């Protein structure tokens, strides 16, 4: 592993990449809004999946109403987080230059599309939750994991969105 670190530090492509600015373009008091805004859609995607399982087990129409609200709110909150994330991707060269940024963006846009389809299904035909809504909820959960994995790579491997003071 030490050999890999030596190789990376002498790699002109990596050195050039690391020179690019990664400071958030959309932040409040230095805290990136995208990182703050993704928590609600993530929780609501998994909440919708849980609600669908409860409906499957109980057949109680209450869970159909809850699923309509959680899926719709997940979609709207996902769009808001996506707008901020897209702005960061477009405006910050150090983010735009990383492959993980593009993988994260593609997974997130796909996730938002699936969340929108899931909400639309519930609006148009609430009884279609089983099996189609449940399958869309499972797919949304998987896509949340994929998008989160790449988002985590940006934070933990590339230091995107981290506030580090000179004394650290």
TrEMBL record:
Source domain of life: Bacteria
Keywords on record: Membrane, Transmembrane, Transmembrane helix
Keyword Methyltransferase listed: no
Residues making up the signal peptide according to the UniProt record: none
Transmembrane segments annotated in the record for this chain: 38-57, 69-92, 99-117, 129-149
Domain DUF2231: 30-161
Annotated InterPro entries: DUF2231_TM
Name this polypeptide is given: DUF2231 domain-containing protein
Organism: Rhizobium wuzhouense
